């Protein structure tokens, strides 16, 4: 084996990797925030909407969950211009991530809503609580506790899936790595460092999510 490892070329472009990392975090956070809105509205419509709306939501969920994310982003970036809707690479990446995470989020949030026993809701109504009070005081926290692990796992998966957006030249971490590799021809070194960055991001967010759960969502210990 005559290959000589040379990481200096990678670290010389550290500012590009850092910018790509921050872009990945921003893209993932924005997609998750917007996707949660889509998921909440979709879950509410699926659990209490008219039948045609439920059918449409089911079709959307099955379409997204049973097709590759790469194909979805290609349809948005390369397909939509055929009908007159042209998006920049970063815009298409954000839209594709929102569409993807929204489909998974609908099922997660629906399961959280349905985990609340109907008798608790009826008890709230018997006490004279409004629908908003019932949602805030009875449904919200127990539902969040039930779905929080799934939501945080979905965020990590979303962040890792954002690497696929480099296929349309979106300006995120893998896209920056591809540019550096094309200049330096140091494939192993570039992608080895990028692997470490994705791992560090995952560990960082897992720690943050665990702290949020301990601080705000965990039930107090019985005395």
From TrEMBL:
Q: Which NCBIfam families match?
A: HEQRo_perm_3TM
Kindly list the residue ranges recorded as spanning the membrane.
Answer: 25-45, 66-85, 146-170, 190-212
Subcellular location per UniProt equals: Cell inner membrane; Cell membrane
Q: Tell me which UniProt keywords the record has, alphabetically.
A: Cell membrane, Membrane, Transmembrane, Transmembrane helix, Transport
List the membrane topology term(s): Multi-pass membrane protein
Q: Which family does it belong to?
A: Belongs to the binding-protein-dependent transport system permease family. HisMQ subfamily.
- Please tell me where this protein is predominantly located: membrane
Domain ABC transmembrane type-1 positions: 21-209
In terms of Pfam families, this protein maps to: BPD_transp_1
Q: What PROSITE patterns is this protein classified in?
A: ABC_TM1
SUPFAM superfamilies attached to this UniProt entry: MetI-like
Q: What is this protein called?
A: Amino acid ABC transporter permease
